[in-house]
């Protein structure tokens, strides 16, 4: 089972409490065309309670300090208690970043602690963003291109400084998401004046809509521009509270499981033997499949209007090995910040495991078998790093898929992560697995379930690496599936 759902909740929380300090006037009676002025106060401290479907699960605090000569230094700390399959997991994140006098990002540091710890540091240099990732005591540096100025999701207030909060007006930004290691677009639309009932009293507010990777969030900000409430993706709500109230957390979560509540409902049909399914035909609703990685390989869209998808388990009897890999596959042989296929320990292990194996498929089978047999199956809430997973030897589907991808690439096998849903106990749960290129054919396999090829009781929605995971946000709470046919 995947904790991809919980990882995306963390992603949502990374920007869910960011819409603060939007305006200097009285929200609800601001004149059209008002422009927001730069913050002149020495600093601020804001606390929010975090709720999931009405149940409090954590708190967040944001500290802002105005720098001498202009600019801001902002830090955020978040603590969450996540009820997952009968256990409560504690996860904390910290994010600190600096903005120059023009409110452009100059540098940041992001830390996440759960079952494992990871730290990401970044520094902007022109149109390059230098990154340092620290995991399991090991440091890796890389650099990525950025489209001009970027900001952090939490920095919307300074980015809107000087802009008018006219109903219907939209503003677009490029933001760096440290959870997915990617620059993604974010759009803010001004809905207009509104009122909000909090703690028994009404407050005037300005209502805003934030669009992020296909999902939408609503925020209400007060006359000081500070967030009163935000309804974020995945059923998450953040409410402005006094420090003492925000810090109060429940001691237990009776009969609450976040994974089960986010699972995709099956409107029709069932699979009696999902791990043996060779072929499945489904109808997908509630989600536009355009722009997602649904068509291709084992998946065929047979009716684009009705969104009928056929998934067929691959046959491996006629696979051939091609010594020279086409240039188009080079992307899936390269290391990334979390798929560290160039790491000496990963490279050494991969070479030992494929030694004596002549075909690409035999190599893939050896790697898949090792990952399946040597990783403890454990629900893990963290950013999956191949180096850390190799050391800890535990994790859920994200850790299995990430380590397999690193080993495969180190062995010369082009490999991708597949992100989607898998059928289990009458529902489709969000899951991660792999696709490896053997000869000229991509084959999907699942090192978490120990399947090569993987069964057909699953639907791939995105593929590549972790930077693609934000595309799944639009699926949460919307995706529905009907099972029309299956074999067996």
Measured by DSSP, the beta-strand proportion falls in 35-45%
Helix content: 10-25%
Number of domains: 2
The biggest beta sheet reads: 14 strands, antiparallel
Please state the overall shape, judged from the principal axes of the Cα atoms.
globular
Mean pLDDT rating: 84
Please compute the radius of gyration using only Cα atoms. Answer: 23 Å
Low-pLDDT stretches are 1-34
Secondary structure category: alpha+beta
Structure summary, number of beta strands = 25
Secondary structure tally, helices? 8
Instruction: Please list the strands of the largest sheet in the order they lie side by side.
Output: 8-7-6-5-4-3-2-1-14-13-12-11-10-9
Taking the alpha carbons of the first and last residues, their distance comes to 22 Å
Please describe what this structure looks like:
Helix 6 runs antiparallel to helix 8 and helix 7 (386-392) packs across helix 8 (397-410). The chain is globular, with a radius of gyration of 23 Å. It has helices spanning 4-16, 156-160, 243-246, 258-262, 344-354, 360-374, 386-392, 397-410; strands at 43-52, 55-66, 72-84, 87-99, 105-113, 117-125, 128-135, 138-145, 170-177, 182-198, 201-212, 215-221, 227-231, 236-240, 266-268, 279-285, 299-303, 308-312, 376-377, 394-395, 415-424, 427-438, 441-445, 458-464, 480-487. The chain starts with a helix and ends with a strand. The protein is 15% helix and 41% strand. It has 8 helices and 25 strands. It has 2 domains: 8-246; 263-487, C8orf32 fold (Roll), CATH 3.10.620. Strands 8-7-6-5-4-3-2-1-14-13-12-11-10-9 form a 14-stranded antiparallel sheet. By secondary structure, the protein is α+β, with helices and mostly antiparallel strands.
């Amino acid at each position: 089972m995947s904790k991809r759902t919980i990882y995306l909740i963390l992603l949502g929380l990374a920007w869910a409490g960011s819409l603060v300090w939007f305006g200097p006037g009285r929200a609800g009676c601001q004149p059209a065309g008002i422009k927001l002025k730069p913050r002149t106060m020495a600093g601020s401290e804001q606390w929010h309670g975090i709720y999931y479907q009405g149940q409090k699960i954590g708190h967040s605090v944001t500290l802002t300090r105005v720098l001498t000569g202009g600019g801001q230094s902002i830090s955020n700390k978040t603590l969450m208690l996540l009820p997952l399959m009968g256990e409560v997991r504690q996860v904390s994140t910290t994010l600190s970043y600096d903005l120059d006098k023009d409110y452009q990002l100059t540098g940041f540091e992001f830390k996440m602690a759960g079952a494992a710890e990871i730290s990401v540091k970044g520094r902007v240099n022109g149109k390059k963003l230098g990154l340092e990732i620290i995991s399991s005591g090991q440091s890796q540096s890389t650099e990525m291109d950025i489209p001009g100025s970027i900001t952090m999701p939490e920095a919307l207030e300074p980015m809107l400084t000087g802009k008018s909060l006219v109903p219907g007006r939209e503003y677009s930004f490029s933001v760096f998401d440290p959870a997915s290691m990617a620059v993604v677009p974010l759009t803010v639309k001004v809905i207009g004046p509104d009122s909000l009932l909090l703690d028994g009293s009404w407050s005037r507010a300005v209502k805003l809509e934030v669009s992020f990777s296909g999902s939408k969030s609503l925020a209400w900000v007060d006359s000081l521009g500070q967030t009163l409430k935000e309804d974020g993706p995945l059923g998450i709500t953040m409410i402005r509270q006094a420090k003492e109230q925000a810090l109060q957390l429940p001691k237990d979560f009776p009969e609450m499981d976040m994974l089960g509540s986010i699972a995709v409902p099956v409107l029709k049909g069932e699979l009696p033997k999902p791990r043996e399914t060779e072929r499945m035909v489904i109808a997908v609703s509630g989600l536009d499949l355009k722009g997602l990685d649904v068509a291709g390989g084992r998946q065929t869209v047979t009716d684009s209007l009705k969104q009928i998808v056929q998934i067929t388990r691959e046959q491996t009897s006629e696979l051939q090995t091609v010594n020279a890999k086409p240039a188009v596959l080079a992307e899936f042989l390269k290391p990334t910040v979390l798929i560290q296929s160039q790491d000496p320990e990963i490279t050494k292990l991969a070479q030992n495991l494929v030694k004596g194996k002549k075909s690409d498929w035999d190599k893939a089978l050896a790697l898949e078998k090792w990952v399946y047999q040597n990783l403890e199956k454990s629900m893990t809430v963290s950013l999956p790093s191949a180096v850390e997973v190799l050391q800890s030897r535990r994790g859920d589907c994200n850790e299995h898929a990430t380590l397999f991808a690193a080993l495969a690439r180190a062995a010369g096998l082009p490999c991708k992560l597949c992100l989607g849903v898998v059928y289990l106990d009458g529902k489709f749960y969000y899951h991660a697995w792999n696709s490896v290129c053997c000869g000229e054919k991509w084959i999907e396999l699942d090192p978490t379930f120990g399947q090569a090829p993987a069964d057909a009781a699953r639907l791939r929605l995105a593929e590549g690496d972790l930077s693609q995971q934000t595309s799944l946000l639009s699926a949460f709470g919307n995706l529905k599936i009907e099972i029309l046919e299956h074999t067996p």
